[in-house]
Write a structure and sequence with these properties.
By secondary structure, this protein is an alpha+beta fold. The chain has helices at 2-71, 75-81, 116-125, 130-144, 157-162, 191-194; strands spanning 86-93, 96-104, 109-110, 198-199, 208-216, 223-232, 240-248. The chain has a domain at 109-199: EpsJ-like (Ribonucleotide Reductase Protein R1, domain 1, Orthogonal Bundle). Strand 5 and strand 6 form a beta hairpin. The protein is flat.
Length: 250
């Protein structure tokens, strides 16, 4: 009889321990699954960072390769050989497709000195509707001029405030083309046109070129762009100088 009671107690203990063991196994599986997921996320993050670095330096290489081509031949000859004064060419660098374009800044309109009429004309030539071009030209000039007199269709401080903007016109020269984004009426569709239209340098410096290099991975789902404004100095000890170097939009 005592033997049966003892066996019964052991059986009950085993029955009580079994659910605990099962729960421990479940918890271990959950923890292991979470750890595996975190590991996969970490590996993916490292891979993305690595890809971004590769694309960044491939894009930089595109700038320097094009610059060496400019310095290795006459500038006019190089530009004429590569479709006059605006060109694009591509090459592959370690499975990365690099596309480079170059354009002389002297072909552009100075955003700091051009008149309303000059800006309106170049905007219309770029495909912007006539009335919209006239309005944008007036506002571009009002942004930089130091007076408070509003151009027809333009906007000064009071107009920006009335329209709900938290800022007014700069009343000073543009120091970066990115400032054009702040001009009322310049939207995400129009702004990309400005890089080929306007320049900060065309009226005061010579031998200046804007080089844009875009690097894409083999699947073309990741890309990095770098924009550089370079001045050729024709000096043997320092044949060029960088006026601007920035990360561009793709």
């Amino acid at each position: 009889m005592k033997q049966r009671v003892k066996q019964y107690k052991i059986s009950r203990q085993r029955g009580a321990i079994l659910p605990v063991v099962l729960w421990v196994i479940v918890i271990c599986l959950v923890v292991a699954g979470s750890y595996a997921a975190n590991t996969r996320m970490a590996v993916a993050a490292v891979k993305n960072t690595q890809d971004a670095v590769v694309l960044k330096y491939a894009a930089r290489s595109g700038i320097y390769i094009t610059l060496q081509q400019l310095l290795g031949s006459t500038t006019d000859g190089y530009l004429q050989h590569t479709n006059k004064k605006a060109t694009g060419h591509s090459f592959v660098l370690e499975d990365v497709q690099v596309t480079v374009s170059i354009k002389a800044e002297s072909d552009k309109v100075s955003v700091n000195t051009a008149s309303v009429a000059q800006i309106r004309t170049v905007l219309e030539f770029s495909g912007i509707e006539q009335n919209q071009a006239a309005t944008l030209a007036a506002r571009i000039v009002d942004w930089r001029d130091s007076d408070k007199l509003r151009q027809p269709g333009g906007m000064e401080d009071a107009d920006y405030n009335a329209a709900g903007y938290k800022y007014g016109a700069k009343d000073a020269m543009y120091s970066d083309l990115e400032e054009l984004r702040l001009v009322a009426g310049v939207d995400a569709e129009i702004f990309p046109l400005f890089a080929d239209i306007f320049s900060l340098y065309s009226d005061r410096l010579q031998n200046i070129y804007r080089i844009r290099s875009v690097a894409r991975d083999r699947n073309a789902d990741k890309a990095v762009a770098i924009d550089a404004v370079i001045q050729l100095t024709n000096q043997p000890y320092k044949p060029y100088r960088v006026l601007k170097w920035s990360r561009g939009e793709v």
